[in-house]
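# step 3/5: fold
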Amino acid sequence: MAYLIIGIVIMLGMHFFGMFAPAARGRIVAQIGDGPWKGIHSIVSLIGLGLMIYGWWLARGAPEGGFVYAPPDWGRHLSMLLVLIGFILIGASHGEGNIKLWVKQPMSIGIALWAIGHLVANGERADIWLFGSILLLAIVDVVVSTARGKVPHCQPRLRSDILAVVVGIVLYLVFLFGFHPYILGVPVVS
């Protein structure tokens, strides 16, 4: 669990720094430039995410892990629906469609739905730490962004909405039939 916790601290710390210390972030960007800052932010966040995944992998089924709660029988089905909607919202965050204007924070809300889905379907301690921390980050980002008035402004295009749905479904299928069973070794569909 140590790697998982260290990864969470790095990942959340990097994101919370930008959210809660915008003046300090601004000074760093002024000194080194926006591109290098984004590069550093991305690398450090990926290191944190990598440690989170590695720690989760080690902790699953370990003696210090164990189930905190038993997922409901319907949890897997609800999870699959929430993850699908989440991927569509993540796809919508990159376009200029009605979905983005309606949801306001589609990336963070999509990630939150993805995390909630995984929390409903999994009850091990490692799952709760991993998906709970990602859910916390997504919720805090929605709250902070909304409080700062960070909302999308665009002329909506139907093409963007259609593309968001198609991209979301394709990502969903890749994760469902490729990433989950072959990379994680955790098949979702039996």
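# step 4/5: annotate
Residues 158-184 form the longest helix (27 residues).
# step 5/5: archive (pending)
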